Structures are given as C-alpha cells and as structure tokens.
C-alpha cells in the first residue's frame, strides 16, 4: 500500500496519518532507521498522547502492509503489471520488472482510489497543515532503532510537493516513478512505459476489490461503491 491507500480511512486523525506515512518516508530519507512493532510498544511510556497517536499510525501501517502483501489480489495484480512492463522492456534485468510490478501496483492503487474520491485527496493535504514536522521526527527518534535528523525536512517537502496529484496522468506518474528508479539505482524508464502504466491502471481498477478485500478493508464499500 502507498500513502493514500493507507490514509483514506483515517482522515479524521491527523497525528495518526503522520504515523501511517512514516515508514514510507524513512524508506526515502533514512533507510537505516527501522520501525518495529515490538520496539514501539516498549517505548510507549516515553510518549505523550499525540506521540502515541503517531505511534499507533506506524503500527497500523505495519499491519496494513502485512495483510496487503499476503492477498491473492496483490499476487495476481503485481504479476500482471510486471508482465505489462516486460512487454515493453523485455526481460532485461536493467529494469527489474518484478520490482516494477510491485511498486507500480501500489502507486496505481492510490491513483484509482483518488479517481473515485478526489475530494479526499484534497482533504488529506488539508490535514497535513496541522502537522509539526519536528514532533514527527522526535517520535521516530523515540521509537526507531536509530536516530535521524532527516525526517522533519522531508515532511515539509512532502507537504509542499503534493506529488500524489501526479498519479492521475501517465506522463507525470512516469516522471515520479523515475525518481524512485534513480533512488534504487535502476535505469530510468523510457517514455514507452506509459503503455504499461495505462494497462496497469485497468488491471488495478478491475482488481480493486481483490486488492482491498472486505475482511481487511470493509470501508471500500462506502468509500467507493456508494460514491460510484
């Protein structure tokens, strides 16, 4: 799951939303810092109410990823999206199409949810105005496995960039995807990959209920079906 899929059910809990985003922020700015459930629970007594709410968001993120990556829908859609890229790129390991199947499926899941409920993305960014980036960094340093000084500035950039809006267009999504490719030291994707993104959107739309099954994501019915 990516930022919006994690957040869409919890927009009434600002500090919790920050915690939901933290594991993904750290994967960008400080990969050596780990957020582990057992370690977080052991530090509870050191946290105030707002900090505990951020910690709860981190734990929810970890739980979301646990079930999401274990669903049949995730297995099927990621394989199909990876195959869509392989049709464009071939089997050359320069681009690692299996990795692309995973990461692009998650980005496109956000895109499909935004497609259904664009007003909730506006709400998500509005909530961010209440965040205190230094407080968020403090929580990481209380519950993480190592200290960091990189989080607060990145939170400010995350709010300012508003890059989730770019997921709706294949050209801007490809640009954002190539930022990820550079970060993991993989070759940039050519413009022809917009075809794979277009095919991937259809795969994620068709697989939405399998990706977010009711036993784990019951809110999908009210968030999507009743709005459609």
Features:
0% strand; mainly alpha; 228 residues
Q: How many domains is the backbone divided into?
A: 1
Distance between the termini: 22 Å
* Backbone structural class: mainly alpha
Number of helices: 13
Assembly context of the chains: single chain
Mean pLDDT score: 94
Helix content: 55-70%
Low-confidence stretches: none
Q: Characterize the main sheet.
A: none
Describe this structure in words.
The chain is mainly alpha-helical and 228 residues long. It has one domain. The chain contains 13 helices and no strands. α5 (72-89) crosses α6, α5 runs antiparallel to α11 (194-206) and α6 (97-116) packs across α7. The longest helix has 20 residues, at 49-68. The chain starts with a helix and ends with a helix. The model has no long low-confidence stretch (mean pLDDT 94).
Summarize the structure.
The chain is an all-alpha fold and 228 residues long. It contains 13 helices and no strands.
Topology at a glance:
Layout (H helix, E strand, L loop, with lengths): L2 H5 L6 H16 L7 H6 L6 H20 L3 H18 L7 H20 L1 H11 L4 H11 L7 H11 L8 H14 L10 H13 L1 H4 L8 H6 L3
Helix pairs in contact: 2-4, 5-6, 5-11, 6-7, 6-11, 8-9, 10-11
């Amino acid at each position: 799951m990516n930022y919006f899929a994690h957040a869409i059910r919890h927009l009434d809990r600002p500090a919790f939303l920050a915690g939901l985003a933290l594991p993904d922020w750290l994967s960008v700015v400080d990969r050596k810092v780990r957020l582990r459930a057992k370690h977080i629970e052991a530090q509870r007594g050191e946290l105030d109410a707002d900090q505990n709410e951020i910690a709860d968001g981190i734990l929810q993120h970890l739980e979301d990823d646990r079930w999401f990556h274990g669903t049949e829908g995730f297995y099927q859609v990621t394989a199909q999206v990876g195959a869509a890229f392989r049709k464009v790129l071939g089997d050359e390991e320069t681009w690692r199409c299996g990795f692309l199947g995973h990461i692009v499926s998650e980005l496109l899941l956000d895109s499909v949810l935004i497609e259904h409920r664009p007003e909730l993305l506006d709400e998500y960014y509005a909530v961010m105005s209440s965040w205190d980036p230094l407080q968020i960094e403090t929580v990481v340093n209380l519950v993480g496995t190592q200290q960091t000084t990189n989080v607060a500035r990145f939170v400010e950039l995350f709010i300012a960039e508003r890059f989730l809006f770019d997921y709706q267009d294949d050209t801007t999504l490809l640009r954002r995807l190539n930022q990820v490719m550079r970060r993991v030291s993989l070759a940039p994707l050519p413009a022809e990959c917009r075809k794979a993104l277009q095919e991937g959107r259809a795969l994620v739309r068709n697989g939405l209920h399998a990706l977010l099954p009711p036993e784990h994501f019951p809110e999908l019915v009210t968030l999507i079906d009743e709005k459609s």
